[in-house]
Amino acid sequence: MDLTVLPGYELIGKGLDDLAAGRETAEALLVAIGAQRLQRAGVEVPSVTENNPEHRLYELLSRAGSDSAHSRYNALIRQLVSFERAAECGPHVRRRRPPSEDSPGCEAGGRMPA
Questions:
Q1: Which of 6, 14, 51, 70 is the most buried (most CB within 10 A)?
Q2: What is the pTM of this model?
Q3: What gap in Å lies between CA 98 and CA 26, rounded to an integer?
């Protein structure tokens, strides 16, 4: 799977590298948050040992600027979800289960339903 063509790859790719190296960065915590869904989409995710990555990410963002932590957290989560959806719906993905609330489903050819 060529992850480099997916939206948000720069962020997720750095997070995968940081997580593998044991670095606690915003990107690594973001990947930890999405680890299960990323793995279901076929992304190889390093072992996640982070406890409460959602809280840890928010704390990290708060230390860098508490006034903007909430909006930055939400922006990162939106980028993660965009990447996850693209990974799930890419033409390289074959569905083995029906769509769920976490996974909106894809049409043939990897397009999101209208």
A1: 6
A2: 0.77
A3: 32
